[in-house]
Amino acid sequence: MTSYAAAGVDIDAGERAVELMKSRVARSHRPEVVHDVSGFAGLFDASAFLRYRRPLLATSTDGVGTKVMLAQRLGKHDTIGIDLVGMVVDDLVVCGAEPLFMTDYIACGKVVPERIADIVGGVAEGCRLAGCALIGGETAEHPGAMGPDEYDLAGAGTGVVEASELLGPDRVKPGDVVLALASSGIHSNGYSLVRHVIASAGLGLDQEIPELSRTLGEELLEPTRVYALDCLALIREAEVHAFAHITGGGLAANLARSLPPTADALLDRGSWTPPAIFGVLAGHGAVPQAEMDKTFNLGVGMCAIVPAEEADRATALLSGRGVPTWVLGEIVEGSGEARFA
């Protein structure tokens, strides 16, 4: 007899995964989350917007790229969801928006309830770190299209910002200071090049690398640092003109997106030492500096552009919150480019 299960879709396993993830998802909820008995939609009480004069909703969507392939190879699935949240909410906060809620989507070849619960548990933990709620999601089983151990995930987030407090290039001016907020490692960009280097150099994920304090696999799966609450705290305590989330394209390309057409960001490469993993990849893969620059964050996961008189206070505040921060450069007259001095 033909059945959905015979075709490779296990509805019972999906329901088991939902039960396993419920308690973890609940830890991410905010007071504005409203329970939807049907479970078809996530509900958020928008009356919270009444305190705004002109609330602007901000939205962002993203995935984590081929980093998921390393999680699958290592059989570690409880942190990749944190990467997803970081990619989404830290785009939202660039304009000054407070992340409110997220939804996620997982496609997999076979629903293994414990694995799905670990993935979603990571998303919920990332939301907790960002101060937002995970209010819904979907898991889809795609037998035949994906292998039984393969999966991919994506997510979308929504935030809110007061129109008069919107951050961006129009606030940036010569004399401002560029602050670097340290990354936790590679974050979630450049993993196609990472995998190419690993394969070409014959490196093993369980291999101990002298420059690293742990295995290569552990280093590569280090979760993305989630900056949202730190950036919001900085906005409350100091004057901020702009942020730049350093993701695909590297430091210069992403920072340039937060500059007006009449100013440049002049950066000091000597102001920091990139984490060891970047030197490992460059060395084993013979990757030139220009390629490293446009592929990886090189240890800078977020930039803040502030008035010069706010630089010391902002650096102290962020460092006090556990985010190593330093002066990376300055804003000068120019044509909208970020470049190294």
From TrEMBL:
Q: Where in the cell is it found?
A: Cytoplasm
The record's EC number reads 6.3.3.1
Q: Name one GO molecular function term.
A: ATP binding
Q: A Pfam family in this protein?
A: AIRS
Specify whether Cell cycle is a keyword of the entry.
no
Which CDD domains does this UniProt record tie to the protein?
PurM (cd02196)
Q: Which residues cross the membrane?
A: none
Q: Where is the PurM-like C-terminal domain?
A: 173-337
Species in which this protein is naturally found? Planotetraspora silvatica
How would you classify this enzyme at the top EC level? ligase
Positions of the PurM-like N-terminal domain: 55-161
Reaction catalysis annotation:
2-formamido-N(1)-(5-O-phospho-beta-D-ribosyl)acetamidine + ATP = 5-amino-1-(5-phospho-beta-D-ribosyl)imidazole + ADP + phosphate + H(+)
- Supply the name of the protein: Phosphoribosylformylglycinamidine cyclo-ligase
Q: Which family does it belong to?
A: Belongs to the AIR synthase family.
Q: Which InterPro entries match?
A: PurM-like_C_dom, PurM-like_C_sf, PurM-like_N, PurM-like_N_sf, PurM_cligase
The record's listing under NCBIfam families reads: purM
Please state the pathway this protein functions in, per its UniProt record.
Purine metabolism; IMP biosynthesis via de novo pathway; 5-amino-1-(5-phospho-D-ribosyl)imidazole from N(2)-formyl-N(1)-(5-phospho-D-ribosyl)glycinamide: step 2/2
